[in-house]
Amino acid sequence: MGPVGAGRGMKTVQNIAAVIPAFNAAPSVGDVVRRTLPQVAEVLVVDDGSTDQTSHEARSAGAEVVAQEINRGKGAALRLAFEVLFGKGFEAVVTLDADGQHLPEEIPKLIDRWREGPDLVLGSRDHLFEEMSGVRKASNSISSRLISFAAGQRVGDVQTGFRIYRRGLIEDVGFPEDRFEAESAVVVRAARRGFQLASVPIHLGFADGRCTSHYRPIVDSLRIARAVIGARLEGAGTAA
User: Fold this and answer.
1) Terminal alpha carbon distance of the chain
2) What is the pLDDT of residue 5?
3) Which end of the chain has a smaller Cβ tally under 10 Å, C or N?
């Protein structure tokens, strides 16, 4: 791969970083890092208490690495990354998973849409739901409808972790939840507070991520429901 921003100009990505939260992702994280580095100015991997060689593989591939001693959850890993990267002055942060499902080569789609003005751009997989297992398809479709209702606007794929966040959004709404529910709750908070959301369709390395996901259907679905209701109630006091 070429240098940072190859084909697009270094200036287009100098204010954008990427974070890859990782938990026991040693077999895949190095490749994801290497393919992400040309797309942004900096890549940070938050090793969320891994017991394998995740940190070593990420660092060897060229990423900055912050390692947590225990597993705190995806939300906590992203919150730490936002503190580090926005603290360095980056204007936006791309989030993508360590298992290879999110294609780093698709990052320019998110960046181009973000540069048009939205505060949060979601890499949408709703056009790929038919390729997923029945359980996964139903989970994504139902949760997107329910969370869209809570947010007060339609969001086609609210569970996608492939996103780009503007600094001002995170500074305003925060990122308080520790686990998977954080990504759903932030959508509701952002929408209720008037931030602009947008989606772009993306391709995936593989459509159904159950084999590599650490998502626990019952426990994490309940966490998401509770967090979304809480975020909706918060927004009730601030919505215009």
Assistant:
1) 47
2) 43
3) C
Render pLDDT for 116-170 as a digit per residue (tens, 0 to 9). Answer: 999 999 998 754 445 455 555 555 566 666 777 666 777 768 889 999 999 999 9
The span from the CA of 16 to the CA of 18, in Å, is: 7
Burial 48-80 (b: 16+ CB within 10 A, else e): bbbeebbbebbbebebbbbebeebbbbbbbbbb
Alpha-carbon distances, residue 221 vs 13, 17, 29, 134, 218 (angstroms): 35, 29, 26, 16, 5
Does position 41 have pLDDT exceeding 60, yes or no? yes
Which of 8-17, 54-63, 218-227 has the highest mean predicted lDDT (pLDDT)?
54-63
C-alpha count within 13 angstroms, C-beta hemisphere, residue 102 = 28
CATH superfamily name and code, 13-236: Spore Coat Polysaccharide Biosynthesis Protein SpsA; Chain A (3.90.550.10)
Tokens of 232: 């909706």
Whole-model pTM over 0.90: no
Is residue 213 very low, low, confident or very high in pLDDT (cuts 50, 70, 90)? low
